[in-house]
Amino acid sequence: MVAIHLPLILTAAAAQRHYSVIILGGGITGIIAARELHRGSISDFLIVDAQDSLGGRLRNVQVGGYTVEVGPNWIEGVHSDRGRTNPIYELAQKHGLRMVYNNWTDVAFYDQHGRNTKEFPKSFARAVKQKAVLVSSAGERIARGKVDLTARSGLRLSSQNVAQSQYDKASEYFTYDWEYGQRPDESSWIATSLNYNGTFDPVYGFGDSDLMCIDQEDRITSQTARLGFRKFIVKEAELFLQPPQILLNTIVKTIDYTDSGVSVFTRDGHKLTADHVLVTFSVGVLQYNDVVFHPPLPYWKREAVLSMRMATYTKIFLAFDRKWWDNSEMGLYADPHRRGYYPVWQSLDHERFLPGSHIYFVTVTGDESERIETMTDNEVKCEIMGVLRSMYPVVYIPEPTSIFFNRWFSDPLFRGSYSNWPASFYVEHMNNLRGSLAATVHFAGEATSGDYYGYMHGAYYEGEARGKAIAKCIVHDDCSDIPVGKDFDELNMKFTPSMTT
Ligand SMILES: Cc1cc2nc3c(=O)[nH]c(=O)nc-3n(C[C@H](O)[C@H](O)[C@H](O)COP(=O)(O)OP(=O)(O)OC[C@H]3O[C@@H](n4cnc5c(N)ncnc54)[C@H](O)[C@@H]3O)c2cc1C
Ligand SMILES: *[C@@H]1O[C@H](CO)[C@@H](O)[C@H](O)[C@H]1NC(C)=O
Ligand SMILES: *[C@@H]1O[C@H](CO)[C@@H](O)[C@H](O)[C@H]1NC(C)=O
User: Is the CB of 252 within 6 Å of ligand 1?
Assistant: First the structure.
């Protein structure tokens, strides 16, 4: 077996060849698209990625000697007897990953005076119910053909949620922001509800559970690049990819396209040409013009790209010299002044996870993520120590031996963690986000998934669909499955202000 996850460098041969398809991005979308091309008997394709290994946002680092996941960590919605099976779960099983179920009811509640066992748990139970009502009432809204609103409006309309106390705010945060990476007022009521059902509903989705990856297999066997969670996609890639089909450590700067073909220019001055290009970069990368298109993207495409949002989700890992904290799987902290201030705590040093690891991690999202990305690790550590001293007023808390968090929002290869559908984003925008340019430049990624945007399974299904469509177009000359974008003048999306004076 070829160890494809090791760095590969551009060979002169790769640069001079003309390809049927160049896949830009070696994340889940790119690899699954490549697998469909391979299944369609197309072998002259090339996957290009800036990173030194495949897997995209599936990334890990070493903290206190353990592999921790800085990107995705959970298979969300796993398998339902009445519904379906998450395709990521199938791959994780096929490639033998070590995964454990989380017990989301094993939560301890904290405020600025330590444990809170009365008001906070009650508020939490209320927020969980309100989230369920939000989702079911979105279903009624769809059935009655009503327009979308923000999830904030939805929460207030459907269950009089006003989230006033610090406990209400933290509980709402846990049921909402912690999943979508943004606040309810930044998110679509209808789309987040459909997205929730598509993943977690026992009939439409994969059922209401999550599996956390704690795979440490190559902790002992490999000194260098450890696989961790990305093992499932790297091993899948190794089953069909050949080294000349992969080009790592290569940043794409420019994409020149016409009706008959595409040229891709890399930062190190190479030109690659192909009949088709599949762009799988995050919608954030497209928003920040990190890659330049010639001719420039048409207005309908830019509008779609700029109307979707990138949310940021940041896990901050802290290693200590011993485990000094509570034994619950999770802790929820309600700050008296600030919503979303170091709110969700998870212990990896738990008998079911990585006992003895001495790792505690906290998650922040959205604006808080963007804020801490501008701070030094030490400044963030000081804030966190302040929060821990509030949560555990009678415990002596040692200084962490290390701290790590990834700056997803500032990273020009991602510009955030995953997409989130705002209330001003329409189905027509989604069609245009997917829509191909000049029948040669195609788009796929978690963000182009209507039902599963944000998730790994969304990336999987989009890679599969676009890979199949491109293979069919090339092999059978039938391009009918390739999505086309529409100029907004052709779409009936008219807003007519009519005001009485
Ligand atoms: C912190 C975090 C937590 C998450 N948690 C979960 C979770 O628990 N469960 C879940 O299902 N999903 C989760 N997700 C979402 C999940 O990671 C994504 O949906 C999925 O990995 C997206 O895959 P993709 O192939 O579409 O994109 P990517 O993985 O982003 O692949 C695109 C590739 O393009 C490359 N690239 C970008 N720009 C350039 C350039 N200019 N030149 C060359 N290459 C470039 C990048 O290096 C990247 O490898 C999380 C994501 C993050 C960041
Ligand atoms: C989950 O945690 C709760 C609270 O600690 C506990 O009562 C319950 O037994 C746990 N469930 C499982 C399946 O471990
Ligand atoms: C989600 O599923 C629930 C239960 O099956 C249903 O009541 C609700 O209307 C659905 N919501 C949406 C937005 O589809």
Answer: yes
